[in-house]
Amino acid sequence: MAAIQITDVKKNYAALQALDGVSLSIEPGEFFGLLGPNGAGKTTLISVVAGLIRATSGSVKVMGHDVQSDYRAARRQLGVVPQELVFDPFFTVRETLRMQQGYFGLRRNDSWIDEVMENLDLTNKADTNMRALSGGMKRRVLVAQALVHKPPVIVLDEPTAGVDVELRQTLWKFIGRLNREGHTVVLTTHYLEEAQALCSRIAMLKAGRVVALDTTNALLKQVAGSQLKLRLSGAPLPDSLKSLQIQHDSSYTALRINHIEEIEPILASLRTGGCVIEELQLEQADLEDVFLQIMDGAHQ
Amino acid sequence: MIGFRTLFYKEILRFWKVATQTITAPILTAMLYLLIFGHVLDKHVQVFSGVSYTAFLIPGLVMMSVLQNAFANSSSSLMQSKITGNLVFILLPPLSYWEMYSAYVLAAIVRGLTVGLGVFVITAWFADLSFVAPVWIALFSLLGAAILGTMGLIAGIWAEKFDHLAAFQNFLIMPATFLSGVFYSIHSLPPVWLAISRFNPFFYMIDGFRYGFFGQSDVDPLHSIVVVLAFFIVLAGIAIQLLKNGYKLRA
Asked: Which of A52, B64, B69, B205 is the most exposed place for a label (fewest CB within 10 A)?
């Protein structure tokens, strides 16, 4: 049974097709990344999974429970950290967390609330009104609210947007621990280095469609390999090397290579073509390169 | 059940934390109405035989406060949550639409009855009141608060900005309340307005509530309770259906 099973989900807003037949299966215990540019449909997809909006067609199951027909069971399995920094100004941090626990039908469990607050460095703010907290602290409370009912599936929608390094480290340490204990984690983020470091598998969305879905390692290998970045003068890049070119601007030309042995023939071709190598760098491709290439449609 | 209890408790705590605005202020407003209208009209107007105008006015003001505050509670809570975005904390958990409906409306009833009781305790000093049929008093105040709490919920779901809510309140709730016989008997109205008033459900709530005090009313309280109950069932059905469909809450 998948932690989240998304089958051919479509969502239309009048003329706009926000989701265009998305299918994904996220397995229990995975740390799964959902990436894409702004407007790709990530938050819409998460909202469909969370039952905040209804899909035009298709189905979503969380731990085997349909989010529409069996919504109560589905929602008990899910903890969602929303992207927007929202809070209820009437209550303190502790009141907020106790209420959230109650909404999920749980009797008060202060020991777990204390543990969550401790892990998110919120303990000394427990009796502070939400209005008096800084943006970073409010973000921590949002994360805590998603965890008060110990959900087996945790969805974090850009949890580190605009927060400092300390919170990021605190958050990833705690979420990493929960993942090791068996919780499934789904993350959307614009910080691709975070996704590369944390996620074992990644889906990339573009214009409401899944354009890439694989393990992080496979994506890094399949799409980009390594990059040979060159600053050239004297002559343009020889035609024989143009098929390797993945990036070119006024200062650099980047060539894709799969093995280190490919460097020598490239250098020979450049010499033969009359190019002078002003500067040379060999870079391992990272997720950002993969992301840019996929989003540019270079390898679709 | 714990989900319902928590949401109910949260709604109570929400208005209780700002009690000056939600409890004290409306009590003061009702007292001002009584002082001004009672002072000006007490010597000149007698609606029911043997009942002074001030005494006649008090149940009307109590009920008006119950109705307006029940409406204000559910509508403002939902609206604020929608505008600030924290409604997501109610929409993400496995709360059923029944739990949501019951918690919002029950909290609205509590606020309405708290304000009504406050108005009664303060204003009762100004006139001799009798309690001919206390069961009717309890029944009409409870149902009236439930109806306005439900209307507040519907308005809160429908409204997309505070402007919409203000329109609902100013162009529907306020006229219906003021034209329901709070300050007068509908028998003192011209025939056309008398006929129109009979289509105003608020009139039946206030008339039936007043019957509980004086044993006198414009229409039979049994007739009133049937109208009020039917109105409540229709409104509750609409509100529950809206919550079930996620109208304007789950796009």
From this structure: A52
- Give the rounded distance of the alpha carbon of A135 from its chain centre: 21
* Model ipTM value: 0.86
Q: One-letter amino acid identity for B183? A: F
pTM score over 0.80 = yes
CA A138 to the chain's CA centroid: 21
CATH of span A4-220: 3.40.50.300
CA-to-CA distance for B183 and B187, rounded, in angstroms?
Answer: 12
Supply φ then ψ for residue B29, to 5 degrees: -60, -45
The domain segmentation of chain A, as residue ranges, is 4-220, 226-284
- Residue type at position A177: R
> A255, A246 in Cβ contact below 8 A?
yes
**Tens digit of each residue's pLDDT (9 = 90 or more) over B217-239:** 889 999 999 999 999 999 999 99
CB atoms near residue A300 (< 10 Å): 10
User: Cβ distance A283 to A226 under 8 Å?
Assistant: yes
Q: Under an 8 A CB cutoff, do A52 and B9 touch?
A: no
Answer whether B94 sits within 8 Å of A102, measured CB to CB. Answer: no
Tell me the count of A-B CB pairs closer than 8 A.
Answer: 80
d(CA B36, CA B56): 14
